[in-house]
Write a structure and sequence with these properties.
The complex is a heterodimer of chains A (159) and B (180). Chain A has 159 residues and is an all-alpha fold. Helix content of chain A is 65%, strand content 0%. Chain A contains six helices and no strands. Classes of the chains: A mainly alpha (159), B alpha/beta (180). At the A-B interface, α3 and α4 of A face α5 of B.
Chain lengths: 159, 180
């Protein structure tokens, strides 16, 4: 019984060790660096698993980038330096918060421009609409009236 | 715009949207242009696999060539390997970048499966891989004669990829003395 318990314990320790190995922990010299690490690792996109940031991803490349991020932060690099370094290697794609400028302007300004366009269309549509409901009830001319009559009659005959 | 045409506006909008979205279905999100396109290969000084000397960017320049990123832990590299040998037999210069790998395992791989590479750069820590923006293996870079990156293919290079993408670019580079 005692042996069994010891074996079980040994097994649990082994399993725990393996699970721990999956998530690396980094020591930071100051809490500020750690906060910046959190922020940047959430802002940087994993190039391999494209819909995850490097904080969430367990892909080898994300692990490498986290390690690199930690090194760069400890070496005193600024946020801008780190982001430039990443963009130079992996392209604009690597940023979840794209830079304002260049081709990215389309991304940033499209919502505003589309909203403006929609407003213009809305205003034009509302303006071109007749003022009151009364004027919209158009009276048929005599010619139209007789055509309607004949159409109705034909429909009755058909059925 | 006539009132008749106005009626069809929603249909036209729908058709445009449908075409855009349908096209999106056929696109491969992994096909991202490398950030290094039209820029020179990053400088490096790394050991050559199985040799005593070091190699640098100057050693892979002089002719248009392929730089293939591979590793023994990469399953798709095994799939790609026979086709690379075929290309090497046709006389295409291929340099290997052995990425985050164990030297002895890599040498064993080349002995067992054949060696299509002129030589291999042993990038044990993945530093060159990082500078190149490698995010997985295999990846294949097309370099011109001056060592400028012209194209990056992420994934397996097979007959289809070679014939439709890489070969036309390679031939264009070869014709113009390697510089377009």
């Amino acid at each position: 019984m005692r042996l069994l318990r010891q074996l079980l314990l040994a097994g649990l320790v082994l399993v725990a060790g393996r699970t721990m190995a999956l998530i690396e922990t980094y020591e930071f010299s100051t809490p500020e660096l750690e906060a910046r690490y959190q922020q940047l690792s959430e802002e940087l996109r994993c190039p391999k698993c494209q819909n995850q940031n490097i904080a969430d991803s367990n892909a080898p490349i994300a692990q490498d980038l986290r390690k690199l991020l930690h090194q760069q932060l400890e070496q005193g690099a600024t946020d801008a330096e780190i982001l430039d370094y990443m963009v130079a290697r992996y392209g604009e794609f690597v940023r979840y918060r794209p830079r304002f400028g260049g081709a990215n302007l389309v991304l940033w300004l499209a919502p505003v421009l589309l909203l403006c366009a929609a407003m213009v269309v809305l205003i034009i549509t509302l303006r071109s609409r007749p003022k009151s409901a009364a004027t919209t009830t158009t009276v048929l001319s005599a010619e139209e009236q007789s055509r309607l009559q004949s159409l109705l009659e034909r429909a009755e005959q058909d059925s | 715009m006539g009132p008749r045409l106005k009626l069809f506006l929603p249909l036209i909008l729908f058709a445009l949207l449908a075409i855009t979205l349908f096209r999106g279905l056929g696109l491969d999100p992994n096909e991202m242009p490398s950030a290094l396109i039209d820029r020179p290969l990053p400088a490096f000084n790394l050991p050559a696999l199985g040799q005593t000397g070091m190699v640098s960017a100057a050693d892979v320049t002089g002719q248009p060539a392929l730089l293939n990123v591979w590793a023994t832990w990469c399953v798709s590299c095994r799939v790609e390997h026979p086709y690379l040998k075929q290309l090497a037999q046709q006389g295409i210069p291929i340099f290997g970048l052995n990425y985050k790998d164990d030297d002895s395992a890599a040498q064993r791989w080349l002995e067992e499966l054949g060696d299509p590479y002129r030589f291999n750069i042993a990038d044990r820590e993945g530093t060159l891989g990082l500078d190149l923006g490698v995010y997985g293996a295999p990846e294949t870079y097309l370099l011109d004669a001056t060592g400028v990156v012209r194209y990056r293919h992420a994934g397996v290079v097979d007959e289809k990829v070679w014939q439709t993408i890489l070969e036309p670019l390679y031939l264009a580079l070869s014709k113009g003395n390697g510089v377009p």
